[in-house]
Amino acid sequence: MSHGPVWHPFTQHALQPEAIEIARAEGAWLERPDGSRILDAISSWWVITHGHRHPRIIDAIKRQADQLDQVIFAGFTHHPAEELAARLTKRVGLPHLFFSDSGSTAVEVALKMALGYWRNQGLNRTRIIAFEHAYHGDTIGTMSAGARGVFNAPYEPLLFDVTRLPFPAKGKEQDTLAALRAATADGQAAALIVEPLILGAGGMLTYSPQVLAEMARICRETQTLFIADEVMTGFGRTGTFLASEQAQVTPDILCLAKGITGGSMPLAVTLASSAIYEAHYSPDRRKTFFHSSSYTANPIACAAALANLDVWDEEAVATKIVRLSQWQRELGESLRNDPRFTDARFCGTIAAFDLKVADEGYLASIGPKLYDFFLSRGLLLRPLGNTIYIMPPYCITRDELASLYEAIRAAADTFGARA
Ligand SMILES: Cc1ncc(COP(=O)(O)O)c(C=O)c1O
Q1: Which of 288, 301, 307, 392 could cross-link 60 (Cys pair, CB 3.0–4.6 Å)?
Q2: Which domains does the chain show, CATH number per domain?
Q3: 44 CA to middle of ligand 1, Å?
Q4: Is the pLDDT of residue 322 over 60?
């Protein structure tokens, strides 16, 4: 039994007493104090995009730390925040940007903006619409929008009700669209929130850009706000800078975090249309957008995010993403045809496969066994139950990726049910 002071996230300490210490990292690799290495095949929980310690981003962090470490952001501002806001708003086509520090806070802010938008106009539209299997974070508001299950059962009494849409699995798209039409028909819904193209923690479930575009159209028609939670999908994961681009959708509210600093520093933003901003713009102080956190727009994190945009503008990021996406499909083909797996799916740089086992789902007993199996081979893969996914940094080489596929096949040899 471990009684150390640190309480780790999503960790059952009674079953997992020892955390693995990492001393340094570079590119796609984590290094332990003894010098042994682990391939970071999940980008350290989906945050690292170009690779660990991209020199340009690290250099920007060092330079900014020498100038301004932190300053209150209510009533004050600084150049890295101003420049980042100018460049990001231009890049994504939404004119206003609110800073916070994690994916969860970016989504909380989005939900609060949506409700404030309606209330400040004197309208009582408070109902949120969300997908089944959705994951939007671990705060009370974001858990409310997310799927109910083992993760949030103890907090259920605190969660607000949302209207749930069936997931638009292949062949079931019309059910989702019909449910959205029904949920918006009375013109009373406040907003729809979606993870565009792929639901992450819910099991790496993919759906088509056509459905996304149609959902956005229905929202427009019924003046329901459309919130895109691109916390995981943003910054290239799905093959384009934003996943929404593939459906030619500009949301009313957009949440970005994780890859915004290339994964180097905690930072998040919620971007909003001018209508959302205007609804809060008033001489009436009660219409203020009442949200803040102490580290809003931390200058060092903003400098890292600016350097990340420079990397996007000046380096071959798009080429690397296209190449990685192709490798995933080529190497994943063997698993697509392997009867021990079902539902091979690819979304840009992400690949996921379900290992056929007797008990499925997040708490499937196979999950921890697979995790240990991969770690024993120096690979960080963190299956969601029996769903094995690979979401590596864009700098991974083809050989490194191939070693992951080889390990997944070996895992099936060890644990997989034969078809
Ligand atoms: C789609 C999505 N939204 C929100 C979050 C929450 O982000 P954070 O863990 O930074 O709070 C995540 C985290 O994985 C996510 O995937």
Answers
A1: 307
A2: 55-314 (3.40.640.10), 316-415 (3.90.1150.10)
A3: 13
A4: yes
